[in-house]
Amino acid sequence: MRSLQSEIEQRGQRIFELVDKHPEPLFSKAGFYQRLMMLSMRDEQLKQQLFRFVDVLPSLRTSGEIVQHLQEYFAEARDSQKVSEFLGAGVRLARVVPWISGPILRWNVSEMARQFIAGRNPDDVMRTLRKRRAQKIGFTVDLLGEAVVNETETDEYAARYLDLLEGLSRETKDWTDPLGKNSALFPVVNLSVKISALYSQINPADPADAIAHLAPKLRPLLRRARNVGAFINFDMESYAHKNITLELFKTVFTEEEFKNWPHAGIVTQAYLRDSEADLRDLIEWGRARGTRFAVRLVKGAYWDYETAKSRQNGWDCPVYLQKPESDTNFETLTRLLLENESVVTSAFGSHNVRSIAHAQAFADELGVDRSRFEFQLLYGMAGPIKRALVDMGYRVREYCPVGELLPGMSYLVRRLLENTSNEGFLRAKFSDNVPAAELLRNPREILHRSRNGVLPPLNSTINMTKNTPKTQPGAPYDNAPLTNFALPENQEKMRAALREQRKQFGRKVPLTINGEKIWTDKMFSSVNPSQPDQIVGYAAEADIPEAERAVTAARAAFEKWRRTSFEQRCELLERVAEILERRRFELSALEVFEVGKPWSQADGDIAEAIDFCTFYARRMRLLGRPRLTQNVPGEESYQHYWPRGVALVIAPWNFPMAILCGMVSAALVTGNTVIMKPSEQSVIIGAMLMEIYEEAGVPPGVLNFLNGKGSVIGAHMVDHKDVDLIAFTGSREVGLWIWESAGKTREGQRELKRVICEMGGKNAMIVDSDADLDEAIVDSIYSAFGFQGQKCSALSRLIVLEENHDRVMERLLGAAASVRVGNPEEAGVVVGPVIDEAAYRRILDYIEVGKSEATLAYQAKDVPPHGYFIPPTIFTGVKSNMRIAREEIFGPVLSVIKVRDLDEAIEVANGTDYALTGGFFSRSPANIERIKAQLEAGNVYINRPCTGAIVGRHPFGGFKMSGSGTKAGGEDYLLNFLIPRVVTENVTRHGLAPEKTPEYREEFLWPKK
Ligand SMILES: Cc1cc2nc3c(=O)[nH]c(=O)nc-3n(C[C@H](O)[C@H](O)[C@H](O)COP(=O)(O)OP(=O)(O)OC[C@H]3O[C@@H](n4cnc5c(N)ncnc54)[C@H](O)[C@@H]3O)c2cc1C
């Protein structure tokens, strides 16, 4: 008996022989498409530009716009000669007669898309399906669409799927199975469904909610499919949706109604590390269910996205990093499927002849008849392979996307990327002409060789190791990873933490002064804004005498703390970071109750606090050592830093751990002693930070915890002669008062007070006429309404170019109506309650102002009746001089301002007192450059939300009335807490000067310990 490998080779060779009988280049369409592919494969940078241009083209309305984009994208192209050859008539004519070249290009791109899109609509696609039928190729049809951003769009989608199903079953009534054998397993009509198109608010953290919304949308489709004898397949999308898709599949097909229906299938992506476990679980489920089901095995279409996303978030990467690992796993899963043929019908979705030949050989080895499984390939790709498989007597089905060009753009770009990928089989075979023997090699062997160092590891630049804080100078800085709530174990941990925190309701926290716990007569209660009758905790309230004691303690502790080595101070911060990490879920859960943060935002707040500790520790190690200013023979000049003295930290409630911890940690690591005054609304979280610092070993008096009214103790300490520095984040009103008051020199004051002052914003996002609305809408809604709009970075003015206005509004209003408002204890809630009654009343007042000034375009109706819930609200027809466009509201209220063009958009965006964050959605390189240069904001965000700054990556802070220009989480932030000092020594003695002066000295500590 021949070995499996030689069977595979024999089958592979046979496929290649058949393929070579009808030779076809990879890019069979001559002209535009072929040139695009060739250029892309030659130059990675050019490929990026070309694909970006292809991406924006369908949304451009006029020829002038097309030509302008063309010039912007390719003005800098290194290979400009080649580019103009490729664009041919397009670019040459562009300069002379734009109205000719625009349509030519659009036509070219449409033609290219036609190669991958089987039809524009259900009628159109029938022509293709009939042709394929003649070639004995079956079909599965998929509906292309824009990313759905609201529930109106998902309803339309569900209706389109139903129409498609009706049309297909009507038109194919008398079609028979091409193999005429085992046809009961393979209905003629086969529909591929994407669950993300059926519910716009899928939150990976809340599978139950997703299933509750998706199942009712699916059932009518499934019923109809069962009645007409069709097959429904659930496609698999990004990893974040994987568990929900699996769960949904199992849930629905276990229901009585569908339990005995065998014509349901799902996809397994072999590039996922957990795919084998998932497939085993599915097979077990299928066995218990007692009815056949189907699995389409693919490698996976989102490799670049998954690797980038996991790197951004610091998560373990869910996909294999080396191509042969995915290939090997594909073969492992092929075996698993075929070995369980009694319960699962397999479809192998691949264009890779090795993967295909392996499935054929293994099926033969097991004696599984070739009519009992099928190969599936994509429309417009690998035509000769399809033909070869049909000739060999295999069952072949083509995956046929249906839809218009614009909604199908992301599908088209995925196919272009796949076809030009260095790693892909199609390119290797049909473009690079790699020999058959090489293409048929066992992927395990390639892997084995690579481990021995014979082959360089693929994608070796990607470092996916778990991010542990490394704070030594020179080490790359890694942020604390966010919790991935798509993982069930994390969902469970959060639920357990919420249960635990409930039990702690009503706890009491004291003041901490000089290491002593102090209880006062007055207790302040902190309530749950979702249910104000629930008291999260009570905190002792300080008055002037306690404030005096705290200042005295901090002053006394200063002399010793300033001389504690910076290394010890850095280590303190690192211990705090470790404790925060250990108590992460507990603290996040506390934030859900005390300030109404949704899960992921609460987790983000704790992650940011950890980052502040590790980042500032790392910065201090660089700043701590005195550094030579210039190398001059005979003289040594070293610059170094002294702490300022006693720091008063006044923090807000909206980032109750991160901002408090950030300001406190910066002050402490630089050698200042601190009085921290958390916001009254988040005092329990503030007390937790004190507890954590104590556990980490902060000496008595170095950090003091003082809860009390800002107007009483805050004001007293701001004016205090023994307070040297004030770090404040909060409202403009209080910030300006502190700024002014700290400017007065009091009797006995040693230092000019330094004020670090971060205040609010009236942040604008501009939507350009060529913006990708799928992204612009989702990100605007998130920026405006996430955490109830209570971030200083939140979006409050959406500036839309008039060309786009109506389309933006239609989708925006629908998206706002689909956002989940509710108690943030529930995992998927996006909008919770505002912080307290005063905020609630103030925001409602602003809504009344808005109604009198502009047009109320949308206001949510169903918000919980108790608690401080404000319905997300959108005003249109807003003018830049109106109060709702000028004043900070700090709630879920968005003003939409229509403008003529980008000039006016910039003028409006900049025409406020504030300059904190600003955003821009556009696909015009020139306009993007303009915004980068002209938007007045401390943090400018392009094509992404305007909230969510990450320590180290996006140093955060604004100017004008938004702040004093400091950047929290930035390289130079610590300098605000320090006094620079230079020590110069003449080291020449009678003309004798040392030859070398060290760049760094040890710390100047006096007296040395
Ligand atoms: C009929 C059909 C239906 C499909 N449905 C889905 C679906 O529902 N969901 C989905 O996600 N995809 C789906 N796909 C797309 C499919 O995942 C890709 O088209 C396919 O992976 C290309 O694989 P291949 O075996 O044809 O080619 P190959 O060239 O052998 O493999 C390319 C694949 O290898 C993987 N890969 C590339 N580089 C690396 C690397 N460095 N490390 C590890 N792995 C790497 C990627 O998955 C890439 O797509 C479908 C494909 C077909 C044919």
What does this structure look like?
It contains 35 helices and 30 strands. The longest helix is centred in the middle third of the chain and has 25 residues. It is of the alpha/beta class and 1009 residues long. The N and C termini lie far apart (81 Å). It is globular and about 100 Å long. The structure holds flavin-adenine dinucleotide (FAD).
Helix content: 40-55%
Most strands sheet: 8 strands, parallel, barrel
How large is the radius of gyration?
A: 32 Å
What's the helix count?
35
Bound molecules: flavin-adenine dinucleotide
Number of strands: 30
Question: What is the arithmetic mean of pLDDT?
Answer: 92
- Widest sheet: strand ordering: 1-2-3-4-5-6-7-8
- Beta-strand content bin: 15-25%
Distance from N terminus to C terminus (CA atoms, Å) equals 81 Å
What would you call the structural class? alpha/beta
Q: Flag low-confidence runs.
A: 453-470
Instruction: Using the alpha-carbon principal axes, give the shape.
Output: globular
Can you tag this structure with a few keywords?
single chain, 1009 residues, alpha/beta, binds flavin-adenine dinucleotide
Put the structure in a nutshell:
The protein contains 35 helices and 30 strands.
How does the SSE layout of this entry go?
Elements (H helix, E strand, L loop, with lengths): L3 H18 L10 H11 L1 H13 L6 H12 L5 H8 L1 H8 L1 H19 L5 H13 L3 E6 L7 H21 L18 E4 L13 H22 L2 E4 L4 H14 L11 E6 L5 H15 L3 E6 L4 H11 L9 H17 L4 E6 L3 H14 L7 E5 L4 H9 L4 E7 L6 H12 L4 H7 L4 H4 L3 H9 L36 H16 L3 E3 L1 E3 L2 E3 L4 E6 L2 E10 L3 H20 L2 H17 L1 H12 L3 H25 L3 E2 L6 E9 L2 E5 L7 H12 L3 E5 L5 H14 L6 E3 L4 H9 L6 E5 L2 H11 L11 E5 L4 E5 L5 H13 L9 E7 H17 L18 H17 L1 E5 L13 E4 L6 H4 L6 E7 L2 H9 L3 E2 L1 E5 L3 H10 L4 E4 L16 E2 L17 E9 L23
Parallel strand pairs: 1-2, 1-8, 2-3, 3-4, 4-5, 5-6, 6-7, 7-8, 9-13, 16-17, 16-19, 17-18, 19-20, 21-22, 21-27, 22-25, 24-25, 27-28
Antiparallel strand pairs: 10-11, 12-13, 14-15, 15-30, 23-24, 26-29
Helix pairs in contact: 1-15, 1-16, 2-3, 2-5, 3-4, 4-7, 6-7, 9-10, 10-11, 12-14, 14-15, 14-20, 21-24, 22-28, 23-25, 23-27, 24-25, 25-26, 30-31
